[in-house]
Amino acid sequence: MFDTLFTTKKTPADQIPVGLWAQFRRQSPGYIAGLLFLAAYHYLQYLFDVELDEAVDVALGNAPGNAVQLGVWLIGISLVAFGVRVLSRIAVFNGGRNAEYELRRATLHHLHKLGPSFYAKMSTGDIMSRVTNDLGQVRLLLGFGVLNLFSTVFALVSSLAVTLERSVKLTLASLSAMPILIIVVLIFSRAMYARQRENQDAIGSLSGRVQASIAGVRVVRSFGLERAEIAEFEKANADYTEKSLRLANLRGVMFPVMQGISSVGIVVLLWYGGHLVLTDPSFDAGSFVAFFRALSRLTWPLISLGFIISVIQRGRASYSRIQELLDIQPDIVDGERSLVSHPRAIGTESPEAGLGPKGVGLEVRDLSFAYGTKQVLRDVSFSVPPGASLAIVGRTGSGKSTLAWLLARLRPTPRGAVFLNGVDVCDLKLTELRRTIGYAQQDPFLFSTTVGRNIGYGLDDPDSDASQQIILQAAQDAHIADEVRELPDGFDTVVGERGVQLSGGQKQRTSLARALVSQPQVLVLDDPLSAVDARTEAAILAAIDKQLQQRSVILVTHRISAAKRCDHVVVLDEGRVIEQGAHAELVKAGGLYAAFNDEQRIETELQRLGSSDLNQLAGAL
Amino acid sequence: MSEASARTSRIEKILREFHEDASFGKAYDLRLLRRLWQFVYPHRRLLYWSLILGVVTVGFGLVRPLLMQWTIDSGVLAKDANVLLVGAASFAGVTLIEQLLTVVRTLATQRLGAVAVSDLRSHVFAFLHRLRLGYFDGQPVGRLVTRVTNDTDALMELASSGVLNIATDLLKLIGIVVLMLTLDWQLSIVAFLAVPPVMILVQVVRRYHREAFREIRAKTSRMNANMNEQVSGMPVVQAFSRQEAAAEDFDKINQAFREANIRSIKYDAMQDAAIDTVTAICVAFILLALGFHPVSFGVLVAFIAYVREFFEPISLLAQRYTILQSSMAGAERIFALLEVKEFDAPETTPAADSPGDTVISLEGVDFSYKPGVPVLHDVSLFARRGEKIALVGPTGSGKTTIASLLLRLYDVQAGVVRVNGRDVKSFSRDELRRHFAAVPQDVFLFPGTVADNIAAGEKPDLERVEEVLLRISALELFKDRPEGLLANVEERGSNFSAGERQLIAFARALYRDAPVLILDEATASIDSDTEAHLQTALNELMKDRTAIIIAHRLSTIQAADRIIVLHKGRVAEQGTHEALLAGQGLYAKLHALHFSRPR
Predict the structure, then answer these.
(1) This model's pTM is above 0.90
(2) ipTM metric
(3) Taking phi first (over 0 means left), then psi (-120 to 50 degrees means alpha), and beta for anything else, what does residue A397 get?
């Protein structure tokens, strides 16, 4: 079928050529076919004009012949022209679509390899605008741009062939205004580009303003800032209105100006062409009409030349923005070793030899880490034997979350600092490392799919019966199953911005269940008790207790109620380990941990208050 | 296995319904037009000018082929060179005037669109700020932003894309047909003989195209949503090593998107070629007819020119219809928003302050956010002038709600909230909220500078900003930044630490200098340096002010004049620290527990 004729075969994502020129060459079969059709179309246009010349002479009685026959012939040419024109567009545009598809695939593949340092620098909105808008511009360049550029050239050749054959002088005279037209077009398209950018910037700052005003609506209300907000908005609105008007005006003026200039050709034709009909016997009425038509079909391609040039320019500028993204090197690269085959052979895959039921031991040696110049961790060392549990305690900003990320290389972990069963995590295959160390986030990101699929995210086939069992079990272990069942569609309820909103505590337990599904040997929980109410806290603590019996757990928290459940506690302050030991020892030691313990006792009691009946509690106290 | 695949298809169906909203608005709705007219009305002069100029321009455009006919018939055929010169010159003149008028007309139309839409945008934004806070709780921010930006932009397209020219385009079509009929009615009929079948064909293609286009739209939004999710959820994708599965998932959508586009290309190509083809066929029909029905050379040229001009606006019609549809869909969404009647703090019966010692009070207040889930029940409390009240209670006991009710961010279901002895419902909202300076637990910073954020809505008086920062001993902290107080705040204040954001919020409250302070203490421990700062700042902030503090720290609680203990939306007990201790109630027991432990 024609639709699929120019579709390239599926290539592995990392082998797709991503250069603009490389993609152009890759789509060349479609382009060549398209250009052949295009050439045929413009030849048929030439033919039409030539036949028209003859037909007019016949019809006006200036020559012997059959006008009806010529008319039918012209209809035939038009219909064939229609066919080849359609085919040319399909062939070339398909090339553009294929390039778009492949570039989008390659870009996502690259995005998957980039680490958090990249995502910290470039916002989701920025990335999305490159993958959608910019890629769209590149597609226009590789489809629309290519087609119309060639179409213009062919149209020029085919029209000039008609006009030059009839009168060289008239051709030169009637095209005298064309250079001006081209210059004007170029000036306009340059100005257009500048104004388009202005316009984009203005709409950007306008929506930023609106976004902040609505996201911060609580503060706006509390401080009575409505009038000030409206005044700020009015400024941005006036600016945007002005900029968009400047752009619209330019567009609006461009068209009449070009029409005006291109009419010069018709004026010349009327006057000088009319003269020729009077004086030159070889330039008759038929020539006049053919010339008229050739001239008019040249007008549009020339007018749109500016537009095509701007499409090409914009496409190239957009491509450079995509290229910027593709040029960024991933800062976390895959290792080669496998945990199960350690320590003797490297790279051999033997079944799970040498792994105890409680899994692996983890060791951190002199780990230091900085974000740019900001030192976050200094010489951190501790170890977690197989099956043991560890709490990392500290204030906000003490580096405890960073430490949790570094364990499974969710940030660029330095070499020689984190070891699993004695193997440097930097040498391990990432898939295996992350299957071994499960991680439940502090501020969990849930996909806007069903709760069940969110929990089963780590499974290959989350809908199979076996998976359903695993999901349910994980949900029970995370103490979220009952609450999920109460949702409108149970486990099939869609969550997210436009779906059902889960509370902070529900999200955290969903994230915990998600981590449990892959049965990691080490479970890292990042601040599972932040922003939860008393009932939720009790549920999460119960879930943690259950996990402590099953696997190694590393618990990042500022809550003593959670930390005291672990075998060992490491206290971080400004990136250093300032104390470590068991809960009881640290309380006795009277350091920062003991201070936390005091500070939080009233808080803890209050939470207990919330979860129980008042009278009962007062009696119990 | 069949059960599993049934499950898959069921979930896929749920997700499809969830993600793909392919709704085109009704293109033509009188009610919508009437509402839009409100915004056009103040600028109607521009509309009138645009219409008048449009009609005149159409007239000039119609004359041009007639001029060609006259020039050829009386110049070429009558062999009169003078006529050629006059004809060509007047053709040039008419074209010049026509294009000049078009320029003026375009400027008027564009201005009309821009100012009317600008007014509408201001109206929508100001309207949002009249809605009560509860309305925003159920609305994603992005959706409301879209109302103010994209949806209004779609309306501006009406003017800038020339959709507003539809009326004059129609006039032009009628003019062309009438003039052609007058020139030679028999030839006209033959000329347009090819039009009906071609138009039927185009109509059919257009319908398929529209369907394909709708599918593309749905696929586009699905694809963007998937990509967006993967990008914002990248930490999860990577932590679970799901890159390959995610890529596979995306590839399916990406492929479907490409296929939908490829399907639509052929319809697009047919539509693109249709106009030129039908023009050529019309010319061919004219020549064919000349075999039976001879006309003059000039009439032939005029006919060819008219046929070309006839199809030009028609070629734009499909595109304009699409724009019209999306504009109207945007208008529909905007006006649906403007229908919302949930206003913020509407002023009811006016009343005067009844001066007394009590600055704020709640009397028998019941409140719930969602029906059936009561948050406060029969709560009564008060604060005297200069008193510092600590609200104590577990998460979910209703502390923050009490703060919101004082500001009348929500309305109570039963009971009364009073400020200076006056029901809060009798204040205008600005007057009421001037009484308070609020420091939320989760500080929100606006785009702008540090100084802008501290002055909150006023033009920052830098001296006063420095003064308040000095009073909370935080001046140096902020002045140390390269740009000092004029340092820019990035999105949501991400370039400031949690402690620094708190301090900015404190300074904001102090700058406002309101008689009542409402403070929601941060729960999480903040780094030690800023924590010390915060304590000093807090003392400074409360000085000479009535303060309601949602307290989490014992030190803050003990410093309060009176403590109110909340439990499950009720006041469990209240009194001074000493009185509560003496009362041997809940607080006393909590306190005893705290101090009985070895320190």
Answers:
(1) no
(2) 0.83
(3) left
